[in-house]
């Protein structure tokens, strides 16, 4: 989350995960997880690994229940993937279609990981990021029945079974109550030939996860907050992005759920058509939000002009008003713009951010009550506290 250094030490601030390890929950569950909860959890793991593989450009290489933590003790708590000590760089530009998942630029050789969760090809020291998908298949199997698909009395026996990778078995006494979709999903990941496994993005589209629609309540909330966002001046929108970028906004399950449901392709980005369709799903119109207003909002959020918005951009638009109006958050946003820390935001400081003197003057003019060509903290705070309709 943050790194702080003084004259004698470096302090690393990390997220606090009070819910413990997935391994402990598997042990506590006795005979396996509820299938719905298992699907939700594996969906989160896949989303995280898809981000690693295709956005950040790393393969984890040691996915196992011990390296998946719960943020809270709740049954449906969000998870965090930890321990990237064995992670290795892979290409982010590599095509993700079936024919190119294992291109030469994704060639890994170090034999590493935990044998029970390692893919067969890792023992051959010739593998790709697809090894993470095998590991997720093993974890999914364990979640649903309480034991691994390839087990043994000792490490040597486990390695022997994993490297042979015979078709996974589902004993009826433990699997009769599990859906065919779950079994098919596991089989797709536990394929000995890595080129036949889906990518993380493809796996997220598996029928096992089903199609989740945006509820009417969520639809109305997103539409209302997008309308509010549209009515803000540009500086307030910029401040919202600063607040999100600084990690101040506490992510809620509701926010993540809304984003995930709209992001039907599970790419980590929402297209204009996806957001528009999600808003229309709750009714036959956009309500008070006109199509031209929607296009303007989407354009404002799509800062890189690629035709999509990411999760942080989404949060900036739908965060609760109370977050923007919090005094500490206002101060953090103000200090971001006040780069020379003289207590006022100048034209020069905004110009460095927006790239235009004229635009900087316009932004200041909308907030500069005393017309001194700068924005004081009190003026900035008044802007942030002003209701938007």
UniProtKB/TrEMBL annotation:
<dbReference type="GO" id="GO:0005524">
    <property type="term" value="F:ATP binding"/>
</dbReference>
<protein>
    <recommendedName>
        <fullName>Calmodulin</fullName>
    </recommendedName>
</protein>
<feature type="domain" description="EF-hand">
    <location>
        <begin position="289"/>
        <end position="324"/>
    </location>
</feature>
<dbReference type="InterPro" id="IPR000719">
    <property type="entry name" value="Prot_kinase_dom"/>
</dbReference>
<dbReference type="InterPro" id="IPR011992">
    <property type="entry name" value="EF-hand-dom_pair"/>
</dbReference>
<dbReference type="InterPro" id="IPR011009">
    <property type="entry name" value="Kinase-like_dom_sf"/>
</dbReference>
<dbReference type="GO" id="GO:0005509">
    <property type="term" value="F:calcium ion binding"/>
</dbReference>
<keyword id="KW-0677">Repeat</keyword>
<feature type="domain" description="EF-hand">
    <location>
        <begin position="325"/>
        <end position="360"/>
    </location>
</feature>
<dbReference type="Pfam" id="PF00069">
    <property type="entry name" value="Pkinase"/>
</dbReference>
<keyword id="KW-0067">ATP-binding</keyword>
<dbReference type="InterPro" id="IPR050205">
    <property type="entry name" value="CDPK_Ser/Thr_kinases"/>
</dbReference>
<keyword id="KW-0106">Calcium</keyword>
<feature type="domain" description="EF-hand">
    <location>
        <begin position="250"/>
        <end position="285"/>
    </location>
</feature>
<comment type="similarity">
    <text>Belongs to the protein kinase superfamily. Ser/Thr protein kinase family. CDPK subfamily.</text>
</comment>
<keyword id="KW-0723">Serine/threonine-protein kinase</keyword>
<dbReference type="InterPro" id="IPR018247">
    <property type="entry name" value="EF_Hand_1_Ca_BS"/>
</dbReference>
<dbReference type="Pfam" id="PF13499">
    <property type="entry name" value="EF-hand_7"/>
</dbReference>
<keyword id="KW-0808">Transferase</keyword>
<dbReference type="GO" id="GO:0004674">
    <property type="term" value="F:protein serine/threonine kinase activity"/>
</dbReference>
<keyword id="KW-0418">Kinase</keyword>
<keyword id="KW-0547">Nucleotide-binding</keyword>
<dbReference type="InterPro" id="IPR008271">
    <property type="entry name" value="Ser/Thr_kinase_AS"/>
</dbReference>
<feature type="domain" description="Protein kinase">
    <location>
        <begin position="1"/>
        <end position="209"/>
    </location>
</feature>
<dbReference type="InterPro" id="IPR002048">
    <property type="entry name" value="EF_hand_dom"/>
</dbReference>
């Amino acid at each position: 989350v943050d790194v702080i250094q003084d004259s004698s030490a470096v302090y690393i601030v990390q997220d606090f995960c009070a819910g413990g390890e997935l391994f402990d929950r598997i042990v506590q569950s006795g005979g396996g997880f509820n299938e719905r909860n298992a699907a939700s959890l594996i969906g989160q793991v896949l989303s995280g690994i898809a981000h690693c593989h295709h956005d950040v450009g790393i393969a984890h290489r040691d996915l196992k229940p011990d390296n998946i933590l719960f943020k809270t003790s709740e049954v449906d708590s969000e998870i965090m993937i930890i321990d990237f000590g064995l992670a290795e760089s892979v290409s982010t530009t590599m095509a993700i279609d079936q024919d190119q998942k294992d291109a030469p630029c994704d060639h890994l050789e170090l034999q590493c990981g935990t044998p029970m969760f390692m893919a067969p090809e890792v023992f051959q020291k010739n593998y790709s990021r697809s090894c993470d998908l095998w590991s997720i298949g093993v974890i999914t199997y364990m979640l649903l029945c309480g034991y691994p698909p390839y087990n043994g009395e000792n490490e040597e026996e486990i390695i022997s079974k994993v490297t042979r990778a015979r078709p996974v078995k589902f004993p009826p006494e433990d699997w009769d109550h599990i859906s065919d979709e779950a079994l098919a999903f596991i089989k797709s990941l536990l394929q000995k030939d890595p080129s036949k496994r889906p990518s993380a993005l493809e796996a997220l589209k598996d029928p096992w996860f089903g199609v989740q629609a945006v509820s009417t309540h969520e639809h109305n909330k997103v539409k209302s907050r997008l309308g509010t966002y549209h009515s803000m001046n540009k500086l307030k929108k910029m401040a919202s992005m600063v607040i999100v970028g600084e990690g101040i906004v506490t992510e809620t399950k509701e926010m993540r759920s809304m984003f995930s449901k709209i992001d039907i392709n599970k790419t980590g980005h929402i297209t204009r058509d996806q957001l528009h369709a999600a808003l229309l799903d709750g009714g036959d119109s956009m309500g008070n939000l006109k199509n031209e207003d929607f296009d303007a909002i989407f354009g404002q959020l799509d800062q890189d002009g690629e035709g999509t918005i990411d999760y942080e951009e989404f949060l900036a638009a739908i965060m609760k008003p109370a977050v923007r109006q919090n005094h500490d958050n206002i101060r953090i946003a103000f200090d971001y713009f006040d780069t020379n820390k003289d207590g006022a935001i100048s034209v020069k400081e905004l110009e460095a951010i927006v790239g235009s003197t004229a635009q900087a003057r316009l932004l200041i003019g909308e907030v500069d009550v005393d017309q001194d060509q700068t924005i004081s903290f009190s003026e900035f705070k008044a802007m942030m506290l002003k209701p938007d309709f």
